[in-house]
Amino acid sequence: MPVLRPLLSLLVTIAATLLIGWIVDQVLQRVADRRPDAPVWPLLRRCRIPLQLVVVTALLLAASPLERIFHLHDDSVHHAVLLCLLAALGWLTVRVVAAVLEAVFSRYETVTGDPARVQRVRTQLSMLRRVTGAVIVVVTVAVMLLTFDTMRSVGASLLASAGIVGIVAGIALQGMLSNFFAGLQIAFGDTVRIGDTVVVDGQQGTVEEITLSYLVVRLWDHRRLIVPVSYFVNKPFENWTRRDPGLLASVVLHLDHTTPVGQLRTALRERLAAHPLWDGAEWALQVTDTTPSTLVVRATMTARNPDDAAQLRFDVREQLVAFLRDEHPGALPRVRTGDEA
């Protein structure tokens, strides 16, 4: 039976693919168990599916059971399997690069105690992964196209006109290229990082994602502001956490002139000491201004990040007003009339 041998070859190919994938997965799992401090090994287990595709397509190219089963004598099946092999190799390379970069970041995060440096490296590795992935995809597609005879025959004419095409493409894709290089400048220029608190066009938010063309800023009400990366290169913006994720929060109160400022300062110190969001670094209570009817008192305190600073500011304002209402109600601002002594 002429079909029995190639069919058996196909079954052996599938069995060998599953076996190789299982063996590689078990080896990676054992290495990961022996070296728990190295995060790259469990991450490489995600490459099992593209690895099996590479193995099965390579074995199909070597044994050619499909042509013998279906009695195909042309090169169409061989070419299709070759294209699948190239695509699988590209997919495997992308997965391996992503796993290595993620492992590098995880390792760096465990040995570095500076949150600012962790955010910078995270942004740079994220951008590097996107750029590398895009390059791998382009190279893979180019190699796949070169397997066609028609593409090879027009190669000389394409090279001859490459200069003109490059100029035309540069003009047509000027905005895209501008965003691309702006993204690289942001990633390695350390102007904005994932996790930074920024103010863009008067709206405060946290940088949630950085791509080659745009940034995603999560606003306080959970809306997402999509901003082109070229904006952060061409226009000024506020970055509250570029050097230090900590932030100084302030509360301004307008009080009566009879306010016992010393007791209010003591109350602030006691409430900050009991508050979980205060980082213990700095605090102060100062009379910053006076008006004919009020004192302007400002309380300042530090927090670990902008979100904690905002919540700490809300809580301290509420607690100080409650303290004055219960202990010194006369310190709250009043509207004086002419009949008062």
Summarize this entry quickly.
With 341 residues, the protein is an alpha+beta fold. It contains 13 helices and 8 strands. Helix 6 packs antiparallel against helix 10.
Layout: helices, strands, pairs:
Elements: H1 4-34, H2 40-44, H3 48-63, H4 65-69, H5 76-111, H6 115-146, H7 149-153, H8 155-160, H9 162-172, H10 174-189, E1 197-200, E2 203-210, E3 214-219, E4 224-228, H11 231-234, E5 238-239, E6 247-255, H12 261-273, E7 278-290, E8 295-303, H13 306-327
Antiparallel strand pairs: 1-2, 1-5, 2-3, 3-4, 6-8, 7-8
Low-confidence stretches: 155-165, 167-173
Oligomer classification:
single chain
Beta-strand percent range? 15-25%
Assign the structural class, choosing from mainly alpha, mainly beta, alpha/beta, alpha+beta, or little secondary structure: alpha+beta
Domain module tally? 3
Mean pLDDT: 76
* Spatial ordering of strands, largest sheet: 4-3-2-1-5
Helicity, as a percent range: 55-70%
Shape summary = elongated
Total DSSP helices: 13
The biggest sheet amounts to: 5 strands, antiparallel
Radius of gyration: 32 Å
* Secondary-structure element order, N to C: HHHHHHHHHHEEEEHEEHEEH
Give the distance, in angstroms, between the N- and C-terminal Cα atoms. 118 Å
Give me the count of strands.
8
